Amino acid sequence: MNPVLKLEHIQKYYGNEGTVTKAIRDISFTVEAGEYLGIMGASGSGKTTLLNCIATIDTVSAGHIFLEGTDITQIKPKSLARFRRENLGFVFQDFNLLDTLTISENIALALAINKTPVQEVEPRISDIAEKLNIGDILDKYPYQVSGGQKQRCACARALINNPKLLLADEPTGALDSHSSQMLLSAMQRMHEQLGATILMVTHDAFTASYASRILFLRDGEIFTELCKGNDSRSVFFHKILQVLTIIGGGQSHVCETYF
After folding, report:
1. What is the spatial distance between Cα 219 and Cα 45, in angstroms, rounded to a whole number?
2. Are 115 and 82 contacting, i.e. CB atoms less than 8 angstroms apart?
3. What is the per-residue pLDDT across 101-149, written as a single tens digit (0 to 9) for each?
4. Domain spans of the chain?
5. Mutual angle of helices 177-194 and 147-159, in 10-degree steps
6. pTM of the full structure
7. What's the topology of domain 5-249?
8. Going by C-beta distance under 8 Å and a sequence separation of 6 or more, which residues neighbour residue 182?
């Protein structure tokens, strides 16, 4: 099988000849269909830049990124918005919900943009909402629900068009421990039940322990990787902490009782 995502010798430089900053030096890896990949690293390691390049928000200086065989580094600027809309789902730290729309309407917005037939909208919203345990708040507005519920709404909006790849940037960064666990459990169900392919950037070891594989970046390169394999999440969590002790840039705000 061909991987969903393939990066070949990605480089990203900022600045001019006098002051060049090498945010990404040389990164290559693949993500298989249905994989849950975490990206970790200290501030300045290149993880956010890498995510932005994959998301087509930023452009690479060298190398190629393939999404199901399409070289996204070659897509013309005027076609990028449509490409993102049809192929990628996004979950960001700050939710990006519209306060004037209900939870249901926020989710429906993604379907409307993709011109989904009207008769399909409500059943699809109900289905994804039930899977994410937000079926009882669809008629409420974002200011009436918790941070965790807002983020699960953002997940529903990101997943409802069945994207080839879900990109999550610090999805638990604005949440407390309980809300973080609720969100991560929901994302895990999406991964297991729907076969969603997820690439998640996080600095939090507990959040990262939900992934099946983690790439650790340092100075714009892959320092090492960890695969969960048959380990329990608790064992995987402690292995993550061991690597973070070496490279720095990690933490966890969740206690042992959450395992």
Report:
1. 5
2. no
3. 999 999 999 898 888 999 999 999 999 999 888 999 999 999 999 988 9
4. 5-249
5. 20
6. 0.89
7. Rossmann fold (3.40.50)
8. 133, 148, 152
